[in-house]
Amino acid sequence: MAKKTLICIVCPRGCHLEVDENFNVTGNFCKRGIAYAKEELTTPTRTLTSTVIIRGGVIPRLSVKTSAPIPKEKIFEVMEEIRLVKLEAPINVGDIIIKNVANTNVDIVATQTINKQ
Ligand code: SF4
Q1: Which residue, 22, 51, 72, 78, shows the most beta carbons closer than 10 Å to its own?
Q2: Which CATH class is domain 49-110?
Q3: Does residue 99 line the site of ligand 1, with CB under 6 A?
Q4: Is 26 exposed, middle or buried (0-12, 13-18, 19+ CB in 10 A)?
Q5: What is the CA(115)–ligand 1 centre distance, in A?
Q6: CA-to-CA dists, residue 53 to 58, 79, 110, angstroms
Q7: How far apart are alpha carbons 94 and 110 in whole angstroms?
Q8: Where in the chain is the domain with CATH 3.10.530.10?
Q9: Is-contact 63 109, C-beta < 8 A?
């Protein structure tokens, strides 16, 4: 493997990392960058945020997110499941909207409360 470069997204400092063929990481200001680079190059994951349609509420869309990071390759499958959801108000922050989304063992949860109109 040739040297790979990536930007650490763990904090706003955004260190420019270089990873060699033995997974030695340089350019990191702190050790969280090492863990990030190793994970990103082996099993990349992301926390996903989105919105779903909600009927009968004071606003028409509800903000949701994954309850934990999901594998990057599952993002489109998860987005498709989220797109198909249609809810009825009321919904409370923390409510599970989709259990085990796309067989990831991660749930989609509400990040806001929407009361009935
Ligand atoms: S390496 Fe550390 S300081 Fe640099 S962006 Fe990542 S978390 Fe922030």
Answers
A1: 78
A2: alpha beta
A3: no
A4: middle
A5: 39
A6: 12, 13, 12
A7: 5
A8: 49-110
A9: no
